[in-house]
Every structure is written in C-alpha cells, then in structure tokens.
C-alpha cells in the first residue's frame, strides 16, 4: 500500500497497489466526473476497490474512511487560507450542526487566515456563531478577535469587539490589554493613544516593555519630548524589569532640546537610585556633550564608562571624533582616545531610539558606509576607521582652484 500526500489540502490518501494478476491486463481509463486531481500531476487518484471518489463535492466533503470531526476543520482551514470564503462558510455551517467543539488552536489558525486575507466579516460571523456554543473558551476567542483586528490596524472593529466582550461579562486580561494599547500606539493618533493609556491604567495592568517602546516612539515621531518625559515618569522610573529603558527615554527627552542641567541632574539621580548606566545611557550624554562642545564633560563621561566597565561602541567613538574635528581640535583627539580601546573591532550597541532623536554623526555614517562596502578581508578596528576618516575630513576642507 502506498501513501500519497496532498500537502496543499493537508489530507493523506491511501493508494492500493494492483494485484499481480491484474497488472498483466491493459489498464482501462474511466472518466469519472468527481475525480480529485493532484495539483502538480495530470493524473487522478481513485479508490480501485469501490470505484468511487475519495471526496465528493464540498457540500459532502466527508470520506468513508475519515472521521467527520477531523476532516472538516482541516478542510475549512484550507479554504480560509486560500480565500475560498464561500466554501469556508459552508464547511463552518456543517461544523456548527455537528457536535464539534472548536479548540483554541483551530480558531486561532482560522482567525489568522481570515486576517491575512482581510476578511473581517468572517471573523465576526464565526465569533457570533460561537456564542451559541456556550464554549468555556469564548473569552479567549474574543481576545483572539481583538488581537487580529488590532494587528491589521482596524481600530474600529477592535473597539467594538472589546465593548461587546465586556458587555457579556468577560474581563480583559493583562495580555489583551497590552495588545489593545499597542495597537493604538502603532496605528492610532497621539490623542487616541493617550486615551487608550488612560483606560489601561484604570484596569491596573502592568504595561509591558514592547508597549512602552511603541508609545515612546509615538511621542518621538511627533517630537513631543516633554510629553515623553511625563509618560515615563507616570509609568514609574523605579521599575527594574524593563532595565534602563525608562531612564534612557527620560534622559533622551532632555538631550533632544539640550537641557544640559536637567540631563545631568537626572543622570545623577538614576545612579543614586541604584541603576547602572549602560552604553545607551552614556551615549545619550556623550552626544549632547559633543554637540554642545562640552569637551571636559565628554572626557569625564569616557572615564566614567571605563570605571563602570561599559564597552564603548561606534557611537561613543563618533562623539569624540566629531566633537574634536568639528572644532578643529584634531591635535587633542589623542588625549581622549588614549583612554579608549581603539584596536577593538567596531560594534554598535546603542538603542535605535537615540538615532531617531539625535540622528547619526558624520563619523558614524562614514563608518557604516565604509564597513558595508569594504572589499578586503581584514580585522577592521576603530583605529583604522578613525585614520581613514581623519584623512577624508582634512581633504574635504582643502579647496582646489581649477583654472
């Protein structure tokens, strides 16, 4: 007996080998109207014993050798995945009329398929049909629908489904609440995001790290740095399960407008409260010092990094190089670089939020372009990059007159 797999349908058919006596006779070809065709081969598969097709038309898609409850869900998922919505609806009605109780895994796959094809009406239809089943998983099905609507940016349906879920007495859990807020942060306006955050706070849920980042990006995108600072204070600067994210965002809100006194004060308070600065923390300050030509503070920041055993990255070196060369102090560059490991391989560890606010320096941009298009296989180091950049910088400032 040979197993033939129809992978696109997630169905396995059994094909019986012909007996030795029948193999000698010439094969007869029957043109049956209900044969199932393999998508890659122009040949039909037929049960040689019963001379009947394995599967009939979609309205009676049940094999004599397959259990109804195991075949229909698989077939419905196939229809939903391939945007065959009429057949999917027909199969769903058959499932409803049976004693089948949909599992969480099945509904999750089904909703994701409908979401991929932007058929939200089918999700609503399935959700309302599940109400008649009185399933204990109904609150989870509502959470799945909310997540699907939100991930597709359909905030209206997400809001309506949430209100419907609450009206039925189902409480939103922390995970769904965070997903709800995340969708407003990504797809909603700043006002909608803040309103959603207010509702989220009243639920007393703990906001997760990825949602904090999404909301922070919403403020940064609109250049609302004061509001960004107020937001991270409201979340709570004492939280340690998100690392230094909240403190770094607060420092960034001051560095964006070069409020140096506030920047220094909050950095000191961060250290006093027991938070250990990371490379992003130091680079936020270093970028501000470099742009404001505060070279002594920049030098102290490099010394502090060294004492804290925080390894500088490409941004750290860029702050030093750009700061000194832009003020034509290239001869003093060695004074600071002698405190740094210039023979290390270049690396980038700074949070991308920093670049969204303060941009990238010239040395940073030069190094990225140089390393991206390098043609030689060798051990690149900060020393090599700095030497090449310094030569390029001095050549750029020379003026050649062509007569």
Automatic annotation (TrEMBL):
Region (Disordered) residue spans: 17-67
Transmembrane segments: none
InterPro entries to which the protein is assigned, alphabetical: TPR-like_helical_dom_sf
Domain of life: Eukaryota
Protein's name in the database: Pentatricopeptide repeat-containing protein
Biased composition (Low complexity): 17-27
């Amino acid at each position: 007996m040979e197993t033939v797999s129809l992978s696109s349908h997630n169905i396995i058919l059994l094909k019986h080998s012909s007996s030795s006596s029948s193999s000698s006779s010439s094969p007869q070809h029957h043109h049956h109207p209900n044969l199932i065709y393999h998508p890659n081969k122009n040949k039909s598969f037929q049960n040689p014993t019963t001379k009947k097709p394995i599967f009939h038309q979609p309205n009676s898609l049940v094999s004599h050798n397959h259990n109804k409850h195991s075949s229909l869900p698989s077939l419905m998922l196939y229809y939903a995945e391939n945007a065959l919505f009429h057949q999917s609806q027909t199969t769903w009605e058959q499932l409803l009329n049976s004693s089948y109780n949909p599992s969480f895994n099945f509904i999750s796959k089904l909703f994701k398929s409908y979401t991929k094809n932007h058929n939200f009406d089918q999700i609503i239809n399935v959700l309302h049909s599940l109400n008649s089943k009185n399933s204990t998983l109904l609150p989870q099905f509502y959470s799945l629908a909310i997540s699907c609507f939100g991930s597709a940016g359909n905030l209206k349906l997400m809001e309506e489904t949430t209100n419907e879920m609450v009206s039925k007495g189902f409480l939103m859990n922390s995970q769904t609440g965070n997903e709800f807020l995340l969708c407003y942060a990504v797809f909603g306006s700043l006002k909608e995001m803040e309103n959603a955050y207010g509702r989220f706070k009243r639920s007393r849920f703990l906001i997760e790290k990825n949602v904090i980042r999404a909301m922070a990006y919403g403020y940064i995108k609109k250049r609302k740095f004061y509001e960004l600072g107020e937001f991270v204070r409201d979340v709570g600067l004492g939280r340690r399960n998100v690392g230094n994210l909240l403190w770094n965002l607060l420092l960034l809100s001051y560095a964006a407008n070069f409020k140096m006194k506030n920047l220094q004060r909050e950095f000191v308070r961060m250290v006093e409260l027991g938070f250990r600065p990371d490379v992003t923390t130091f680079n936020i300050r270093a970028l501000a010092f470099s742009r404001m030509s505060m070279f002594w503070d920049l030098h102290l920041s490099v010394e502090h990094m060294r004492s804290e055993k925080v390894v500088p990255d490409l941004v750290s070196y860029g702050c030093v190089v750009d700061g000194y060369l832009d003020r034509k102090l290239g001869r003093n560059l060695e004074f600071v670089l002698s405190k740094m490991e210039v023979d290390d391989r270049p690396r980038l560890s700074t949070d991308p939020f920093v670049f969204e606010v303060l941009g990238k320096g010239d040395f940073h941009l030069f190094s990225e372009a140089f390393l991206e298009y390098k043609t030689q296989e060798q051990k690149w180091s900060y020393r090599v990059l700095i030497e090449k950049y310094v030569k390029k910088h001095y050549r750029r400032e020379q003026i050649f007159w062509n007569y």
